[in-house]
Amino acid sequence: MSHKRYKIGAQHGVFVLSQPLAVAFVPTEHSRMIRVASDAKDFTPLPHRALYDEVLELVFDDLDSGESAMTKAHAAQILEVFARYQEAKAIHQEACLVVHCQGGISRSTAIACAYAVWSGNAELEQDIRASGFAVPNSLVYRTLVYDIDPQCRALS
Description:
Radius of gyration: 14 Å
Low-confidence stretches: none
Number of strands: 4
Oligomer: single chain
Largest sheet: 4 strands, parallel
Number of helices: 7
Distance between the termini: 31 Å
CATH topology: Protein-Tyrosine Phosphatase, Chain A
Number of domains: 1
Mean pLDDT: 88
């Protein structure tokens, strides 16, 4: 299964991974990572952390509502990473964006699908959703695509 998981979004430079796969992943230069966990103590140390230009660690649960769900402040941080990744990718084609949560199924796939909308890459979103692994968290996706960024609303 892990071999298939590495292929989700890979042809687009975006990797949607579970935490174990993300920890083992060796990024290319100029890459960025978005990590999501339910508790800060749940983040496994990254042996290749120094190879990333940026690692954003966010704590929120895989819920559609409630105090521990994703907030607009989390979304704003994610959108900033999207923008910096796009800038890096324009200069360094080998740059990648790695997104992971614990299982690589819900929060991370929602973030990657929102990136696809944000960047105007419908094929990436289709690939993620068709993977058989993705069940994007609706709050995460909705917050990133509809509630925060007018650019995303215009593209969706």
